[in-house]
Amino acid sequence: MLRRSYVTAQQLAGFDRYKYNAVDTNPLSVYVMQHLWNRIVKIVPLWIAPNLLTFSGFLLILINYLILCLYDWDYSASGSGRIPNWVWWFAALSTFCAYTLDSIDGKHARRTQSCTPLGELFDHGLDSWAISLFILSWFSACASPEGTPGVSVHTMYLSLIVVLFNFMFSHWEKYNTGVLFLPWGYDLSQVALVAAYVLTASVGVEIWYRPLVFGYYITAVLMTLIIGCSIFLSLPQTLHNIHMAYVKKTLKKDSLYEALLPLVSPVILFLLLTAWVALSPCDILIKQPRLFLWMVGVAFSNVTCRVIICQMSNTRSEPFHWLLFPLAVVVFAAITGLLGRLEESILTVLTVLATAAHVHYGLCVGRQLSQHFNIYTFSMKKPVQE
């Protein structure tokens, strides 16, 4: 099952030459959170593998998401009292713990002298999936039940796309500059998300349906900030860093085409998904919001993971992701009415297959790199040489 070789020999050779290079200028991270993480990491036993910390954090996020699925599958439970209060407390705790584990895994790797390209890829690969789980879980607190001013499913879709592209741009930037400029929005969003869950648990979800100032609701302000910061802060910063690399003649790509290549698949993916949302005969996003948004997160995660591999191995990004072809067929059949009443069923099948393919991809890549570097993914022990 796990014999598929997704990482080429050229990419494996590129991983051998890879050196981690990141810049963190976020004041919240540098002056506040780093001091906390430096204390916490000292508590972690030295025999625990850094990847185990990373994966444990991801599992907490996934468990939180699945609990909310159980109580609020169609994003209609907010404000109805169907979600127990303990769920919001658990969401706050799991989000904070996941944020902590994701922040100390690299520190623990340096502390135990176990830094490898596999660890960085494992970290960023899971982050590319977790980023959608964070926002899809939060939607359960502020979704728009009938007759309330909460966040509509179309706003959810737009917000999710903006956040996913924001994450993608960070790694596209590194693909071109060789430096990962850590986005300011990550630490700010994590702290804000924990605070929002605590507020929800303490006051109730009703807080998100009350006007804040001038008749504007808190949810509308938050969504505006998310989209605004991404478009007017993160993207300009990314373009500025790429421009400065061009000025200093340190760009890793020698043509505009090669520089933009990683963005081809995400843009086509966005256009196909948006066409499906806008032209679906049965309003697929309204009928199956949880399923559709999950599929969006999985698809973008797989596309991003492949870009991260190319970026770390200094190899050329593929122009077209394989998922685009079956997705294009499904979208065409859906919007032309060929699927008829089968549209929701086909979405289910497509989502299951995309998720299975993504998990298989992660397992195979992890196996390949662990064998290449002669290490275990979740253990500090060294494999016995045959």
UniProtKB/TrEMBL annotation:
GO terms for cellular component: endoplasmic reticulum membrane; Golgi apparatus. This is Ethanolaminephosphotransferase 1. Pathway: Phospholipid metabolism; phosphatidylethanolamine biosynthesis; phosphatidylethanolamine from ethanolamine: step 3/3; Lipid metabolism. InterPro entries: CDP-OH_P_trans, CDP-OH_PTrfase_TM_dom, CDP_ALCOHOL_P_TRANSF_CS, CHOPT. Its EC number is 2.7.8.1. It comes from the Eukaryota. Ethanolaminephosphotransferase that catalyzes the transfer of phosphoethanolamine (PE) from CDP-ethanolamine to lipid acceptors, the final step in the synthesis of PE via the 'Kennedy' pathway. PE is the second most abundant phospholipid of membranes in mammals and is involved in various membrane-related cellular processes. The enzyme is critical for the synthesis of several PE species and also catalyzes the synthesis of plasmanyl-PE, a lipid required for proper myelination and neurodevelopment, from 1-alkyl-2-acylglycerol. PROSITE patterns: CDP_ALCOHOL_P_TRANSF. Belongs to the CDP-alcohol phosphatidyltransferase class-I family. Signal peptide: none annotated.
